[in-house]
Write a structure and sequence with these properties.
By secondary structure, this protein is mainly beta. It has a single domain, classed as Methylamine Dehydrogenase, Chain H (7 Propeller). It contains 3 helices and 29 strands. β23 and β24 form a beta hairpin.
Length: about 400
């Protein structure tokens, strides 16, 4: 019993030291680690958004694939947390805002269908906004220009990736299948339950509107992980960037103008950042042919997040990820010239892994990450940079 009390006091001491040592500035910068009494289990940060004048909302997967929500005040202080029970599992990255309401998507544990849940910002149980039994094994979600949604899933019967357009009233618009030509259910189950490799599934739209632009998704197609471009009118494939099975593929993408993208790719355990890459979306190419410098400091298969922001009268593309020694990394590039403007290392005492980051309304930047207290107990962490710290990174 004495040994248990001593261990507990040591952990509390470590938490207190962590909060003191990691604080960036006493002003609008802050560092928060959200502790809890659990000595087991795991947490996987997915997304963070800023609620106007009300702080931040965090989405995570708890204990492999359970839905977990946490809300903070503007200074990062804890407000409430909520863990959803069965049948809600497999929350998708992305908190969706529509007309002042906030939504998340997740899977039914039994039917494998997709729920769209409306979040109660006071911490109550989310309401079911829609349920789509036709969208099984949901993998990614994004907004569309017409205020609808795009959902990516997997159909185990046809062995295909599905792309489904949801209208702004949450009714289904259309669904299209893209053949994989082999069974990928085992890999997807391992992905969802985090008992195997975790893959960067995502989708989106680029262009001026639904008639002149095109959709894209990153997922399984034609035996391998591929980035597929889809005609917005016919839903047929325009072209794709093939990967190499589960060992080489595009792992992050941010559309810029025309057919230029900021993207990231991996090849086995190597990481490559391409801040401005022109892609012919109407041809078949191979991700391994995209030449770029290797970034040996980035951890193998680390999550990469790409965002764009107007800073000092120019557009800047920022990559967020983490290093092999588990520091958070931010790389800032000039959007037009694709030159590295600066970088930031965040986190010293504890190990940290990238979850998400956003630019905040006050000109700062907020990073959501996973950390380990005493290098053992997984917890969520927030780092807030001020506007001055962000500008210093790009000067």
């Amino acid at each position: 019993m004495k040994k248990y009390i001593l261990s507990l006091l040591l952990l509390i001491s470590l938490v207190a030291c962590e909060k003191k040592d990691e604080t960036l500035n006493p002003g609008t910068s802050f560092t928060k680690i959200f502790d809890n009494p659990a000595f087991s289990g795991d947490i996987h940060p997915l997304s963070v958004v800023e609620i106007p004048d009300s702080g931040y909302l965090i989405l995570a997967a708890k204990d492999t694939w359970n839905v977990y929500l946490l809300r903070t005040q503007e200074n990062g202080d804890f407000t409430w947390e909520l863990s959803l029970g069965e049948p809600y599992v497999n929350p998708l990255s992305g908190i969706i805002e529509k007309e002042g309401q906030w939504y998340i998507a997740c899977m039914d544990e039994v039917t494998l269908g997709t729920y769209l849940l409306q979040i109660d910002l006071k911490g109550g149980t989310p309401a079911i906004a829609a349920y789509y039994p036709e969208i099984t094994y949901p993998l990614s979600i994004s907004n569309t220009p017409d205020r609808g949604l795009l959902l990516q899933g997997y159909d185990r019967t046809s062995r295909s990736t599905t792309l489904t357009k949801i209208n702004k009233d949450f009714t289904m618009g259309w669904q299209h299948n893209y053949d994989i030509l082999e069974d990928k259910e085992e890999q997807l189950i391992n992905h969802l339950t985090r008992t195997g490799p975790y893959f960067p599934f995502f989708n989106g739209f680029t262009g001026t509107n639904g008639n002149t632009g095109y959709y894209f998704f990153n997922g399984y197609f034609n035996f391998t992980l591929s980035l597929v471009f889809v005609d917005a009118s016919t839903r047929e494939m325009l072209g794709n960037i093939n990967g190499f099975r589960e060992e080489g593929y595009i792992n992050a993408l941010h559309p810029m103008q025309d057919d230029f993208f900021a993207l990231s790719r991996i090849s086995f355990d190597d990481n490559y950042l391409l801040p401005k890459k022109e892609v012919n979306v109407r041809e078949i190419s191979f991700s391994g042919d995209f030449v770029s410098n290797r970034f040996p400091e980035i951890s193998a298969h680390a999550k990469v997040v790409i965002k764009e922001k107007e800073l000092i009268s120019s557009s800047v593309v920022v990559y967020g990820t983490h290093s092999k020694n588990n520091q958070l990394l931010l790389y800032a590039y000039d959007k037009e010239e694709a030159t590295l403007l600066g970088m930031e290392h965040i986190g010293q005492t504890n190990p940290y892994q990238m979850g998400d980051f956003i630019f905040t309304a006050d000109g700062g930047l907020l990073v959501l990450s996973k950390t380990y207290l005493a290098k053992r107990f997984p917890r969520l962490a927030l780092f807030k940079l001020t506007e001055e710290e962000v500008l210093e990174m790009v000067r």
